[in-house]
Structures are given as structure tokens and as C-alpha cells.
Amino acid sequence: MDKFIPVCEPMLAGNELKYVTDAVATGWISSAGKYVTEFEKQFAAYSDCKYGVAVCNGTVALHLALVALGIGEGDEVIVPTFTMIASAFAVCYTGAKPVFVDADPNTWNIDVTKIEEKITPRTKAIMPVHIFGQMCDMDAIQALADKYNLLIVEDAAEAHGATWRGRKAGSCSHVGCFSFFANKNITTGEGGMVVTNDEAIYEQLKYFKNVCFPMNGVRNYLHNDIGFNYRMSNVVAAIGLAQTEKADEYKVMRIHNNKLYRHYLADVPGIRFQTVLPQAECVSWMNTIVLDPALYGHTKDELIAYLRENNVDSRLLFNGMHRQESLFRFGCDCSGEYPICDMLTENGFYLPSASSLTEDTICAICQLIKDFAQQ
Ligand SMILES: *Cc1c(COP(=O)(O)O)cnc(C)c1O
């Protein structure tokens, strides 16, 4: 490859500069400003939700959602072990404990058949994480939530615009949380949003996000609860609004790129993609492959090194939550076996996944992977 292909770069091809320039030119650079409200409105609508609350990143979106639902010390929240650390950290910030469930061997999402055995009288919520843009089995999760009277907090950080039986990510629960980090399908560089259809939860989200100023709007500087400053600035929201206008366009590009990878790698032995269930429309945040070294002829680390020599970047997959020293020291139960998650960590990695990738580039990357298989 002549040019270095990064694992992901943002696509800023719409009104980003125009809106940011307007925010700066008019002096509206704090969290007060029309772009914040407009971004909240439009992104919530895009996610089929009534309300959106913009925050400064996806990690605090999760924390804020849990706080707004009243989750705290003494509570337990079911979290997949195969996820980004923010899912578990957000639970810890509230004083509650994350309880881990292994991944499904095919979809790599939380294994819904293994959730029930982890439910205790202290369990307050389930946090399904829509891994790599494919929504979890929300029917099974809803059934468990109904049976045990649990809350659902969707970690939809990787799944903007994804659907499960036609229902959008973020709308299949009490609250949905998004990240707009630079590599996500919709980005503001750093940013996040919590969406909900519940007006009471919406009020709580706004209250805790803004250091618990009195809900009646009176600025008497009396605060009855410990709150947070998780506000997003108008400059950042200006980027978010422009991105939301292009959300479906970028989604189609990501989905198309994933189809191309699957097509060009179809006949390479020992390479497996995430299985996408018929109920799900996966928005393919990251093009992830899992290698069977015996069939492929090399380990994933050897393939990653070969790609790097040829100017193609890649990234390792998550290490499971059960392997995290920080969570163990916090008092989480990290014992037990999580073989699917361990297999993914051991054998999987991401290929370049920017929305803007061309078919020629994807074809060339796949050719490298094929060539190396022969060596
Ligand atoms: C990216 C991501 C987050 C965190 O988002 P930040 O904006 O980086 O804080 C949380 N959960 C998952 C599953 C993610 O992929």
C-alpha cells in the first residue's frame, strides 16, 4: 500500500465547518446555544426517541444514565465481559457492581442464555452493549427485565442507527447511551448523548448533568444532590448536528464496506466475521475478523505485523472485564470462565473501517490477507 491506511478516520464532509464557524462567530461557545438543543433534538429523533441529553463523552453518558435511574451502592448491573472498559467503569462510578456475562460465540454480543444465572436480589439493571454495531437480542433481554423487574441501559456507543426488528438502538430500553468519539460512526471528536422516551428520566438526566441546579430553573445556588458537569459545548454540538444530517449516508457506507470485506475474504480459510442475525441491521462500526490460526496458517499477531509492514493499520479487540485488575480490586467477581470472550481477545482484530474507505483500498487490504495465507 503506497499510503498508510489508518484503522479509522472521521468523515467530516457536511456542514461541520459552517456550523462551527457560526458558533464561534456568534460567540456561543459554551453549552448554552442553539446547536446543543438542535443536535439533541435531531439525534434523539434519529434514534426514535423523544428526548436527547448531550454530554461530553460516551463514558459519562453511561454514568449519567445509571445515576438518573437511581442505581448506586449495593446494586448490581449485568454487563457483558466482552466490551469496552467504559461500560463497567460507569457502573463502578455509581458504587454499584458490574456482574459479567460471556459473549455469544456467533454474534459476540452478550450471551442472553447466560444472563439469568447471574441475576440476584441485588440486580437492578442489564446493560446490553451492541457490539460492533449489531444490536443485542432485545426480545430476550426485555423478557428477562420483565420477569425480574430490571431496568435496561443500552450501551449503544457503537450502534448509531442500528435496528432490532426495525426498532432503533437506544429506543429499546429505559435509556440509550451513545459515544461520538472520533472513530465512531457519528462523531464530534469527543462527545456523547443519552436518549430516552421517558419524560421523568429526561428531567433527571438534565438535573444530574448540570450539577443539580434546582429543577424549577431558579438559580439560587442551592444544590440538594451531588451532581456532575457533563455538559457538551455548542462548538462540539455544531459538529454533531452536521454529522446527524449525514447519519444515514455514513451508515450505508459502513454497511457497504463490511459487505466488501466479507465478499473479498469469503474464500480465505480460517477467517470468520461476526454473525448478523436476521432481526438485526448491523451498522458495522468496525470490520472485525477472528482468525483460526490452524486453518489460516498464521496467528493474528503475525498477520497484524504483516499488514503493518504493508502500511495497513489494525487494532486488537477488547480484553474481557474479568481480566481487569482495576475491576478485581474494586471488588468485582472476576472468577469463572469466559471462554468466548477470551477466544475473541486471543484471535480477533479490527481491519480499517473508516466510512470513507474505497472499494480499491478494501480489495487491496484483502489481497494482502490472502497473500499472507499462502506464505
Ligand atoms: C466507545 C465506547 C464507549 C465510550 O465512549 P467514549 O466516548 O470514548 O467515552 C462506551 N462503550 C462502548 C461499547 C464503546 O465502544
Please describe what this structure looks like.
It is built from 13 helices and 14 strands. The protein has helices at 16-25, 34-46, 58-68, 85-93, 138-148, 199-209, 234-245, 247-264, 293-296, 300-309, 325-330, 339-347, 359-374; strands at residues 51-55, 76-80, 97-101, 123-126, 151-155, 163-164, 167-168, 175-179, 192-196, 271-272, 280-281, 287-291, 315-316, 348-351. Strands 1-9-8-5-4-2-3 form a seven-stranded mixed β-sheet, sandwiched between helices. Helix 1 (16-25) runs antiparallel to helix 7 (234-245) and helix 3 (58-68) crosses helix 6 (199-209). The mean pLDDT is 97. It binds pyridoxal-5'-phosphate. Pyridoxal-5'-phosphate is lined by residues 57-59, 83-84, 86-87, 129, 155, 157-158, 179, 181, 192.
* SSE topology string: HHEHEHEEHEEEEEHHHEEEHHEHHEH
- For the secondary structure, the number of strands is 14
What's the N-to-C terminus distance?
Answer: 18 Å
Query: What fraction of residues sit in β-strands?
Result: 5-15%
Q: Name the bound molecules.
A: pyridoxal-5'-phosphate
Based on CA inertia axes, which overall geometry fits? globular
Strand sequence of the main sheet, in spatial order?
Answer: 1-9-8-5-4-2-3
Unreliable runs: none
Structural class: alpha/beta
Q: Can you summarize the main beta sheet?
A: 7 strands, mixed
